[in-house]
Amino acid sequence: MPDPKRTLVFAFGFLVIYGLLITPWPGLKPFYARYFQALGRAVFGDNGSRRTLEFQPLDNHGHVWPPNFDTAIIMGNRDWRDATGQSHRYLLTVDAWQMGWTPTAFLTALTLATPLPWRRRLGALFRGSWLIHGFILLTLGIFLWNESTRLGLVMLSPFWKGVANQLEQLALNPVGPSFFVATLIWVLVTFRRRDLRPREDPDF
């Protein structure tokens, strides 16, 4: 049976850590956006194929996009050119903070608040960081894959286009899969089988 005191300490620690991590401290959001853009360039950047991708800060002075959006992704098709010879390009925008930092902060808070020895917590956080980055890149990859249909980079039948649209909506849902996946990663990297066994009553 869970120890109420340990559960309360865990819940309080999680709320404090998550609150501190998710607070947009001055300079933190632009810093993470630059990191997110660099990560996107490293994984999805131009590799000589038909598709071109550029990740850069979003210039939103005209307030065209939601105010929280901070990253512009410019996608192009080298084989589609206009009358001037320029390749067709399409502008995508994302909120790096919501897509990347929110699940990372959630996982970090869960892991650091867990009442286990610090060595295990830090080890779990290291492993979890790799997995949550994989999830972030998968989310971004689904988004880019579906949007590639706009430039003829991916050809999908109406049925599969509908499936792709649903996957994109699911992947970009700000409160759904990211928290579920972060929780699942926390369980997988933090706990061992013996942690789930009932604790023996010290009075016997």
Structure notes:
The protein has one domain (4-193). Helix content is 55%, strand content 13%. It has helices at 4-22, 28-44, 96-113, 118-147, 158-171, 177-190; strands spanning 51-57, 71-81, 87-94. A three-stranded antiparallel β-sheet has the order 1-2-3. A hairpin with a 5-residue loop joins strand 2 and strand 3 (87-94). It starts with a helix and ends in a 14-residue tail after the last helix. The relative contact order is 0.13. The model has no long low-confidence stretch (mean pLDDT 86).
Task: Give a quick set of tags describing it.
alpha+beta; 55% helix; 6 helices; 204 residues
**What kind of sheet is the major sheet?**
3 strands, antiparallel
The helix count comes to 6
SS-derived structural category: alpha+beta
Distance between the termini: 16 Å
Give the fraction of residues assigned to helices: 40-55%
What is the typical, i.e. mean, pLDDT? 86
β-strand number: 3
Rounded Rg: 21 Å
Order of helices and strands: HHEEEHHHH
